[in-house]
Each structure stands twice: as C-alpha cells, then as structure tokens.
Write a structure and sequence with these properties.
It contains 4 helices and 3 strands; from the N terminus they run βααββαα. The chain has 112 residues and is mainly alpha-helical. The protein folds into 2 domains: 63 residues, Multidrug-efflux Transporter Regulator, Chain: A, Domain 2 (Orthogonal Bundle); 39 residues. A hairpin with a 5-residue loop joins strand 2 and strand 3. Helix 1 crosses helix 2. The chain is flat, with a radius of gyration of 18 Å.
Length: 112
C-alpha cells in the first residue's frame, strides 16, 4: 500500500480500497465514472479525493482493508458499516433513477 499521506493511488491501490480489481478501476476511469490522471503512456494515478467522492464523501482508510473473514466472523460494527454503505448507495441509485425518469418524461412530453 502506498504512503497514507499520498494524495494519489495506483489502480491496484484504489482497487484494494474499493474491493475491486485494478482492471475494473482502469475501466471506470475509461468510462468516466472515476477520474484519473495519466502521468505517462503506461502510468495512471487516481486522486484519493476522487475515491472519497465516489464513496459519498466518506474518508477512506489509510491502510488496506483487513483480509476477508468467514461470514460468521463478521462483527456487529462490520455489519453496521456495511449496512450504512448499502443504504447510502441505494439512496444515490434511487436519486439517479428519479433523475433519469424525469428526463425521460421531459423528452416524451417534448416529442408530442
């Protein structure tokens, strides 16, 4: 893992924090879902602030996540954190769907 004070992460480091592969992180940058800085033809860096934005403003851990544990070993704190994250993501998804539906209604109404 990189220096916790470093404002930039490699795709592998970003993937560790997001629980994604480095390849998936690169794909997100290519699709525009995640902003990255191409510092050379072969080197891509991801701003830590961009990962925090993607996580809904939640500060990212400064160390890699702990190795996966058996389901029966999850603590109540782990479950609370996971539930909280899932609720935040569901809210964002709901908001995005609402916006898309509003755009679709506008477009349908404008076509008549």
């Amino acid at each position: 893992m990189s220096n916790p004070g470093n404002p930039f992460l490699t795709p592998s480091e970003a993937g560790e924090l997001l629980h994604l592969s480095a390849r998936h992180v690169r794909r997100m940058v290519a699709e525009g879902t995640l902003k990255g800085v191409k510092v050379s033809e072969r080197r891509l860096l991801i701003p830590r602030a961009e990962l925090e934005r993607l996580a809904g403003g939640t500060p990212l851990p400064t160390a890699p996540p702990a190795p996966a544990r058996e389901e029966d070993e999850l603590s109540r704190d782990d479950l609370r954190a996971l539930t909280s994250t899932m609720h935040r993501l569901a809210e964002k998804l709901g908001t995005a769907v609402d916006r898309l539906e509003a755009v679709a209604e506008t477009l349908e109404g404008g076509g008549e």
